Design the sequence.
């Protein structure tokens, strides 16, 4: 059996971990005008008027609404930009982020 081929006993599995996604969450407040919230959602999260309106109303009624999910850096950057857009107009509009389970 000089030619017998021995199969390797160990297998190397290449594991590619997917980066954890982070949610951007819109938080309701009593001061920011609805129209302004819709405008920010459209501008920063590339939503249609319809989508943006639905997300705004959900946050208005339930207190919070998930806007979108991204990798950590992008979620945090977008939440910061969107929050700053409100602050620039004197509104307490708030976007936060949290990791997806
Ligand atoms: N509650 C605000 C109003 O009645 C509108 C609003 C909706 C503000 C959602 C923030 O995340 C928000 N003018």
Sequence:
């Amino acid at each position: 059996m000089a030619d017998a081929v021995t199969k390797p006993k160990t297998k190397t599995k290449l594991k590619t971990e997917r980066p954890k996604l982070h949610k951007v969450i819109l938080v309701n407040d009593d001061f920011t005008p609805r129209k302004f919230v819709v405008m920010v959602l459209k501008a920063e999260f590339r939503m249609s008027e319809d989508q943006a309106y639905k997300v705004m109303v959900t946050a208005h009624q339930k207190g919070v609404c998930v806007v979108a999910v991204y990798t950590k850096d992008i979620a945090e950057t977008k939440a910061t930009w969107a929050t700053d857009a409100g602050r620039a107009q004197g509104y307490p509009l708030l976007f936060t982020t949290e990791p997806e389970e």
